[in-house]
Design goal:
The chain is α/β, with parallel strands linked by helices and 333 residues long. The protein folds into 2 domains: 54 residues, no CATH class; 270 residues, TIM Barrel, CATH 3.20.20. Helices cover 34% and strands 19% of the residues. The protein has a 10-stranded mixed β-sheet, with helices on one face. Strands 5-6 form a two-stranded antiparallel ribbon. Bound molecules: iron/sulfur cluster. Iron/sulfur cluster (SF4) binds next to helix 4.
Length: 333
């Protein structure tokens, strides 16, 4: 979606017309402007030329699979990927990308290893959710949650990410509640402070992956710039001040960060957070880049048990979408 053209047009329209346009695009899910018959012909023609609604994509997986991936070709020919996870309970969770590629180069991440092309516009972020909603609608389903865990670091493109989320949250668009939106970040300054003070109840996930700088420096080069000593007090203050839960993302890598020694370091590192407001989310490594291997189930169980004994709430994220290269860390340009 050409966001500049969209805003140029919609901002000049009277309120009733704005409502009609939003209804046509986000409720009736029109795939082209010729279907929006409430608009005068000349407006439809202008929009069709300057802000087309069609989305150029290819799909991997079927709607009966646990996850599907869409590769979207943007107007400038670059591509991004977005994933939907269909949970058995009927929940539909959409994983959104915020950048084409990513400049941060985390060692375990396919996106990071492919370099950075550009930030996405708010329109290109909205378009990803709109595509999934169009695909869900015939079965009477609706997106339940949005998570920024796709390609890119959301904090490097925060204004566009928040503008996109605000639109998707709007009752006249997809009406997705603030608490149903999660932003995952490695932690960058000063954007982190801005996000944590944003004021809406967006969920925050910290991609930690290692509890000591000596490990994190190797896995995530950005840690050399924003070390754990810089980031931890900011996340801690957020949790204490807002009384909101912080999710700690921790990717288990065989014999890299999955031993009991690291479980103990992690438990000690988090000891001064209120435990009831932390959720440690252990991720399984999905083979892709780097010389890494997933942890064995035995090692993972021991890691979980150790943390639970220390009073932490721990979950393990299911690796949906591995077969379509749509799981965490596997999205590519
Ligand atoms: S894990 Fe996230 S921040 Fe790191 S390279 Fe991949 S997309 Fe970028």
């Amino acid at each position: 979606m050409n966001w500049s053209a969209w805003k140029l047009f919609i901002d000049t329209q009277p309120a009733f017309r704005q409502r009609q346009i939003n209804h046509a695009v986000f409720k009736e899910l029109a795939a082209n402007w010729s279907a929006v018959s409430v608009l005068p012909l000349k407006d439809r023609q202008w929009l069709e030329t300057n802000c087309p609604l069609d989305i150029n994509y290819t799909l991997s997986g079927k709607e009966t699979d646990p996850a599907q991936k869409a590769r979207i070709v943007l107007a400038d020919g670059l591509t991004i990927e977005t994933v939907i996870m269909h949970y058995g309970t009927g929940r539909q969770i959409v994983c959104l990308s915020s950048q084409v590629g990513c400049p941060l180069g985390c060692a375990f991440c396919q996106t990071g290893q492919q370099g950075f092309k550009r930030n996405l516009t708010a329109g290109e972020i909205i378009e990803q959710a709109l595509l999934w909603q169009r695909l869900l609608a015939p079965a009477g389903q609706h997106i339940n949650n949005l998570v920024f865990m796709g390609m890119g670091e959301p904090l490097l493109n925060l204004p566009q990410v928040l503008e996109g989320v605000e639109w998707l949250h709007s009752p006249s668009a997809l009406d997705i509640g603030w608490r149903h939106v999660a932003i995952s970040t490695v932690g960058l300054m000063p954007e982190l402070k801005h996000l944590l003070n944003y004021g809406q109840q967006i969920k925050i996930a910290w991609s930690l992956h290692a509890p000591e700088d000596k490990w994190r420096d190797q896995l995530m080069p950005i840690n050399r710039r924003y070390s754990l000593a810089v980031l931890k007090p900011i996340f801690r203050e957020y949790v204490i001040k807002t009384n909101r839960r912080l999710m700690i993302e921790y990717l288990l890598l065989d014999h890299i960060n999955d031993q009991l020694e690291q479980a103990e370091e992690l438990a000690n590192f988090l000891a001064d957070f209120p435990k009831n407001l932390l959720l440690i989310n252990l991720l399984n490594y999905n083979p892709g880049v780097g010389n890494f291997h997933p942890s064995s189930s035995r090692t993972r169980e021991a890691f979980i048990k150790f943390l639970e004994k220390r009073g932490y709430k721990v979950t393990t994220r299911l690796s949906l979408g591995q077969d379509i290269l749509g799981a965490c860390g596997q999205l590519g340009i």
